[in-house]
Amino acid sequence: MIAIVDYGVGNLRSVWKAFRYLGADARLTQSPRDVAQARAIVLPGVGAFRDCMASLDRLGLVDPIVGAIKAGKPYLGICLGLQVLFEESEEFGKSRGLGVLKGQVLRFPAGMPAQAQGARRFLTVPHIGWNSIQLLKPAPHLEGIPQEAHFYFVHSYFGLPQDPSVVATTTRYGVEFASSIWRENVFACQFHPEKSQALGLRILRNFLSLQD
């Protein structure tokens, strides 16, 4: 069973439906026991970093998630599920994360310039919509994903790892940021594969294939 962690914030059913479409035995759960016994963990999410961590704490899910990662179980983080892997976020002041990766989560800087039809303007935050990725290393989760592939993003913050070797892809939106990370059994993406059509499903399918 794949445990899709439901921490009570945001609509997670689109992720569950995507896995079910691919024929996976996936379950939305708030149970620490389910997470501890699952063969793989998926942590999706949108919303505030601090609220997510507070919910994980309240539900007793922090230790099972970190324990599953340390035990080598496949972990897929989506959007907020990437950000909470880090030690802390600056969202609403300093908030602690799971501490699986060294580094912090930062907000896009204000006043990021962009060119539009020859006129100067500023990029809006949050970063919403389709954007391309640059492949930096051959993560198995990205097999079959071409350079400059487009995925769907919705976020105002991004993770900045201390160790650049964990960055699998980057994306530019005013600044260049890590749009996915990969280290051993942990893969997480800032974009939403469940909303990214065929290529997004390819990433989910790759994640499933690593458990066969």
What characteristics describe this protein?
212 residues; 24% helix
Please explain how this structure is put together.
Helices cover 24% and strands 36% of the residues. It has an eight-stranded mixed beta sheet with strand order 2-1-3-4-16-15-14-11, with helices on both faces. Strands 6-5-7-13 form a four-stranded mixed beta sheet, with helices on one face. A two-stranded antiparallel sheet has the order 8-9. The radius of gyration is 16 Å and the shape is globular. The chain is built from six helices and 16 strands. The mean pLDDT is 94. The protein has a single domain, classed as Class I glutamine amidotransferase (GATase) domain (Rossmann fold, 3-Layer(aba) Sandwich). The chain is an alpha/beta fold.
What is the fold's blueprint, element by element?
Elements lengths: L1 E4 L7 H9 L4 E4 L2 H6 L2 E4 L5 H10 L3 H9 L4 E4 L1 H4 L2 E4 L5 E2 L4 E7 L5 E4 L2 E4 L4 E6 L1 E2 L14 E6 L1 E5 L5 E7 L1 E9 L2 E4 L7 H13 L3
Parallel strand pairs: 1-2, 1-3, 3-4, 4-16, 5-7
Antiparallel strand pairs: 5-6, 7-13, 8-9, 10-12, 11-14, 14-15, 15-16
Helicity, in percent? 10-25%
Can you tell me the CATH class? Answer: Alpha Beta
The neighbouring-strand order within the major sheet is 2-1-3-4-16-15-14-11
Radius of gyration: 16 Å
Main β sheet profile:
8 strands, mixed
The CATH level-2 architecture is identified as 3-Layer(aba) Sandwich
What would you say about this model in short?
The protein has 212 residues and is of the alpha/beta class. The chain has six helices and 16 strands.
